[in-house]
């Protein structure tokens, strides 16, 4: 009997030791890693976790115990149930096409990783032309009610197909440059830095860009070098300006406006309602390059070696751009 008791005590002791060791291994040290203000001891609150899930806010860890200023009331803090309700379970909440175009930052769980998630744009979106009116099919071609006699329905001003332009469409960066929020392109705010009414040849236009990148100025046909007021490079001018291609320049157009054909409220200065050169060559007539009219949004092409300071209908201006894909 005594042996059985001894054996039982021994077995109980061994089991107790094993349980104690397991608990220590599982729980780790019960001592805090440091005082309440130590980095390793700081923690996030439930409210901060909830804000992170709903807004992406980073928040700051607690630096010490928080003492309530008064007794608890109702709905004084978020609960674990609140957090569970906003925690995504799949990555099906990827950004929509509109999110991508507008540059919206979307938070969620993407392939098991929490943070900023991305999406794809299955098709290239086409923005609305800006035209909101219908016009008669016969002279005097004045504005009319879409779908009435002599005023057909189903035209651009009636359907207004495409995605809406962002509001605001442009951001004046306050440094001589303007960002187009639809395309991400950055334009020189001064649309006629050369400063003269005389146009230039395509070759001279490319020389203007080189001068802008080198000195931040353009010298017009009057021989005066004018500052283009670009201070966006830490107070100095950028060095990667270029002549826009035909799609880039034409992307600024608003077919509901004229003189110039730009969205209402645009922030640009010195926009001439005439022709502006692009960097795109005509594939058939390779001695020509495309240009865009700021009066009517027309696109045409002309000889690259046109005479500088020519007749009014051959005055071509330079509007530098940078950025893009």
* Shape designation: flat
Overall pLDDT, averaged? 80
Structure annotation, total helices: 7
**Helices and strands, in N-to-C order?**
HHHHEEEEHEEEHEEHEEEEE
Overview of this structure, please?
By secondary structure, this protein is α+β, with helices and mostly antiparallel strands. Among the domains are: 134-164, no CATH class; 170-322, no CATH class. Helices cover 22% and strands 15% of the residues. The chain has seven helices and 14 strands. A four-stranded antiparallel β-sheet has the order 5-6-7-14, with no helix packed on it. The chain has a four-stranded mixed β-sheet with strand order 12-11-10-13. A two-stranded antiparallel sheet has the order 1-2. The longest helix is centred in the N-terminal third of the chain and has 26 residues, at 2-27. It is flat.
Element layout with pairings:
Blueprint: H1 2-27, H2 46-55, H3 80-86, H4 97-102, E1 107-110, E2 113-116, E3 134-135, E4 143-144, H5 156-159, E5 170-172, E6 177-180, E7 186-188, H6 202-215, E8 217-219, E9 225-227, H7 246-250, E10 275-281, E11 288-293, E12 299-303, E13 316-317, E14 321-322
Parallel strand pairs: 10-13
Antiparallel strand pairs: 1-2, 3-4, 5-6, 6-7, 7-14, 8-9, 10-11, 11-12
Helix pairs in contact: 2-3
What are the defining features of this structure?
four-stranded antiparallel sheet; alpha+beta
Summarize the structure.
This protein has 325 residues and is α+β, with helices and mostly antiparallel strands. 22% of the residues lie in helices and 15% in strands. The chain has helices at 2-27, 46-55, 80-86, 97-102, 156-159, 202-215, 246-250, and strands spanning 107-110, 113-116, 134-135, 143-144, 170-172, 177-180, 186-188, 217-219, 225-227, 275-281, 288-293, 299-303, 316-317, 321-322.
């Amino acid at each position: 009997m005594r042996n059985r008791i001894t054996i039982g005590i021994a077995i109980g002791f061994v089991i107790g030791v094993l349980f104690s060791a397991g608990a220590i291994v599982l729980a780790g040290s019960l001592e805090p890693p440091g005082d309440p203000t130590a980095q390793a001891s700081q923690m996030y609150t439930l409210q901060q976790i909830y804000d992170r899930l709903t807004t992406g806010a980073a928040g700051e860890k607690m630096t010490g115990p928080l003492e309530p200023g008064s007794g608890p009331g109702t709905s004084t803090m978020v609960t674990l149930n609140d957090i569970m309700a906003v925690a995504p379970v799949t990555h099906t909440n990827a950004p929509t096409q509109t999110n991508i175009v507008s540059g919206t930052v979307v938070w969620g769980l993407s392939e098991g990783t929490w943070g900023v998630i991305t999406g794809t744009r299955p098709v290239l979106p086409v923005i609305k032309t800006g035209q909101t009116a219908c016009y008669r099919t016969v002279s005097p071609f004045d504005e009319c009610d879409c779908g009435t006699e002599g005023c057909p329905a189903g035209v651009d001003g009636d359907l207004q197909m495409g995605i809406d332009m962002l509001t605001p469409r442009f951001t004046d960066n306050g440094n001589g440059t303007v960002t187009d929020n639809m395309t991400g392109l950055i334009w020189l705010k001064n649309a006629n830095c050369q400063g003269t009414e005389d146009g230039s040849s395509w070759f001279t236009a490319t020389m203007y860009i080189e001068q802008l990148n080198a000195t931040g100025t353009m010298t017009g046909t009057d021989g005066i070098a004018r500052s283009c007021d670009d201070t966006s490079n830490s107070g100095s001018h950028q060095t990667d300006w270029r002549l826009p291609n035909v799609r880039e320049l034409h992307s600024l157009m608003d077919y509901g406006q004229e003189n110039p054909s730009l969205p209402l409220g645009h922030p640009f200065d010195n926009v001439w309602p005439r022709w502006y050169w692009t960097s795109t060559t005509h594939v058939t007539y390779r001695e020509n390059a495309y240009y865009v009219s700021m009066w009517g949004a027309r696109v045409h092409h002309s000889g690259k070696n046109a005479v500088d300071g020519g007749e009014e209908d051959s005055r071509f201006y330079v509007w530098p751009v940078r950025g893009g894909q």
